[in-house]
Amino acid sequence: MRHPPRLSLLVIGAAVALLGTAVAPVVTASGATPACTVEYSVTGKWDTGFQGAVKITNNMAALSSWSLGFDFPAGQKVTQGWNAKWSQSGSAVTAANESWNGSLASGASVSAGFLASWSGSNAVPTAFRLNGTTCNVDTQPTPTPTPTDPPPAGGGAPKLHVSGNKLVDSAGATRRMLGVNRSGGEFMCVQGYGFFDGPVDDASVKAIADWKVNTVRIPLNEECWLGLSNIKPEYAGANYIAAVKDLVAKVEAHGMTPLVELHWTYGQYTGNSAGCSDVHATCQKPMPDAQYTPSFWSSVASTFKDDPAVAFDLFNEPYPDRATSTTTQAWTCWRDGGTCPGISYQVAGMQSLVDAVRGTGAKNLILAGGLAYSNDLSQWLTYRPSDPTGNLVAAYHVYNFNTCASESCWNSTLAPVAAQVPLVAGEIGENTCSHSFVDTVMKWFDDRGLSYLGWTWNTWDCSSGPSLISNYDGTPTSYGIGLRDHLRALNG
Predict the structure, then answer these.
(1) Peptide bond into 466 cis (omega under 30)
(2) Using omega within 30 degrees of 0 as the cis cutoff, is the peptide bond preceding 456 cis?
(3) Is 130 in a helix, a strand, or coil?
(4) Using CA atoms, how far apart are residues 116 and 350, in angstroms rounded to an integer?
(5) Residues 6+ apart with CB under 8 A from 383
(6) CB-based contacts of 347: which residues, under 8 Å, 6+ apart?
(7) How far, in Å, CA of 428 to CA of 437, rounded?
(8) Which of 2, 50, 219, 441 has the fewest Cβ atoms surrounding its Cβ within 10 A?
(9) Any residues with CB less than 8 A from the CB of 309 and at least 6 apart, and which?
(10) DSSP summary character for residue 385
(11) DSSP letter at 233?
């Protein structure tokens, strides 16, 4: 869903505990300021890999370019990175500036992140060099903070996987994903307000479950997850990841499936139907970006790969069809990425994102939405990505104002897809403050045993949101009452 403009004015309504792993600034024993300081942190860690970050502060004369060097002491290997050109020879690691962040004024800082493998131990580098100058002089290296443990595997939520054109749990019973979207994680952090819009404590999650919801879709922001330098540190990187993991654990504790989804991404697009002109992840872009999105999904998948109850939705609402001149170009861009007509940045196609997830060893369920803001699945089967686990689902969005919003369109374009793979309507809704349209959607999907999630569990104006609730205790709007009563009727 494309958000109404009022979201930029929202402020967070509840405090969220910060569980950061940022390393404190270095101070020399003599009190003198070192020529440069480097703060190294581990923001996530799993069996064979970890996510790390460096914050470089230049206290020398201004630099027009920079190169950071350090040695991994325990055989760690960098596999990919962002905000710098990362390379490694033996134990020696180098992070050199990108073309757009080479200027580093005196007193200025720059941050970069990476993914790396490890085995045995993950000891912290002890020395850092900026353009050949040793940083953190006269100080002892700060120990790597202990990363937050992942949420307990399972937690009462079903472990869904694909069987033919159905979703089944670990016992083989057919399941449907029926629930709501919990918006906020995609925009609050990048706007500098917090992690989520409104409370995400246990009481507020229980209120969702009380609607007989079994799935909660959680939109995310890639810049916040990766901790890029334009995000306030208190809402970035390890702090953001910890907040997401905490919400995922609460959702699972109430027996619901957490569906984590990439909503807003990096990359400047000013073409047809552009949501904003900002290069940063502040609106819906036509496609995910090759610079950061594969790293995002590698990190997310590594974080949750030991918890098969978590499902992944690769990208909210692709619309390369608005940028390209032909349908073939649009679907090719959707699957293969690269240089796409009408899109100025390098695109990460759906295949590369599936590969990023599976490359971590994660076997979690993956959803992939089609063209036209996920409203067009007409050639999804022709262009669907290859998934070695066979655990790929078609995602669809539908509102009363979409092109494909009638039973005739659903019969001609959705039914053939649903005959071959599971189909999940990740967003359904209407901007009428009533529920006659979603009633029609739910009946068509119910008749075929398909899945759907209402947009959105937020207290916005239902005519512009649309919003399911007027209070986080679960009080429905005149629109939301349709979904609530229907789910309760289905599930008792």
Answers:
(1) yes
(2) yes
(3) strand
(4) 23
(5) 331, 332, 334, 335
(6) 267, 287, 288, 289, 290, 320, 333, 337, 338, 339, 340
(7) 9
(8) 2
(9) 153, 154, 155, 157, 158, 159, 160, 252, 257, 258
(10) P
(11) G
Q: What pLDDT does residue 20 have?
A: 35
**108-129: buried (b, 16+ CB within 10 Å) or exposed (e) per residue?**
ebbbbbbbbebeeebebbeebb
The confidence score (pLDDT) of residue 47 equals: 84
Model pLDDT, residue 138: 52
Concatenate the DSSP letters of all residues of 396-412 into one string: EEEETTSSS-SHHHIII
pLDDT of residue 3: 60
Report which of 375, 395, 372 is spatially closest to residue 384, judged by C-alpha positions: 395
Integer Cα distance of 204 and 278 in angstroms? 33
What confidence score (pLDDT) does residue 149 get? Answer: 36
Q: Are 286 and 323 in contact (CB under 8 A)?
A: yes
Q: Do 146 and 421 contact (CB within 8 A), yes or no?
A: no
Mean pLDDT, each 10-residue run in order, the chain (492 residues): 44 28 38 85 89 92 90 93 91 89 89 92 92 74 37 68 97 97 97 96 97 98 97 96 97 98 98 97 98 97 97 98 96 98 98 97 98 98 98 98 98 98 98 96 98 97 88 96 97 73
In three-state secondary structure terms, 3 is coil
* Amino acid letter, 153: A
Q: In angstroms, rounded to a whole number, what is the distance separating the alpha carbons of residues 202 and 79?
A: 37
In the chain, the amino acid numbered 480 is G
Least Cα distance to 319 among 297, 340, 298 occurs for 340
For residues 468 and 211, is the Cβ–Cβ distance under 8 A?
no
The sign of the dihedral angle between the CA atoms of 188, 296, 380, 260 is negative
HSE-CB for 140 with a 13 A CA cutoff? 3
The pLDDT score that the predictor gives to residue 106 is 87
The whole-number pLDDT of residue 156 equals 86
The CB density around residue 408, as the number of other CB atoms within 10 Å, is: 8
Instruction: Indicate the pairing of strand 451-454 with strand 423-429.
Output: parallel
pLDDT for the residue numbered 492 = 64
Q: Which residues pair with 393 in a beta bridge?
A: 367
